[in-house]
């Protein structure tokens, strides 16, 4: 508990220091400004439209690997299961099994199981369904084959992967249910 509290305080202090620092453009911003002002013959328009297109998040599919915050996520499989937990508080239309691999490329131990969110075909966020789900932690430089079960109303699904304590954008995987 003390480690988590210390980590949260360190993160908040880092954010405060960044917010209070001078507002200097980075060298990549300088390069972009130089590129945008080179000519007035339409190059500026094409670079702006390229920026607009790249602002949409890239989506991945089954078998792809994405890295977020030094952590690599690979969506291995998404399948429907007939298995049910008689003590579950919900009765979803279907339960999907999400199989994925996590490789910890960071220098810190990371939690596993709270690093993904699942949205069904209607865009609703789904809760973890109480079956044999992978929960725990992963040491630096190690891999794990993980599983999460989710009760959904309809497919296809979107799976968002990102470490529990991360300010980076998640990796988004779209998958049809087998």
Automatic annotation (TrEMBL):
It comes from the Bacteria. Residues 22-32 have a biased composition (Basic and acidic residues). Residues 1-21 form the signal peptide. Residues 42-54 have a biased composition (Acidic residues). Keywords: Signal. InterPro entries: Immunoprotect_excell_Ig-like. Residues 22-65 are annotated as: Disordered. This is DUF4352 domain-containing protein. It comes from Ornithinibacillus bavariensis. The lineage of its organism: Bacteria, Bacillati, Bacillota, Bacilli, Bacillales.
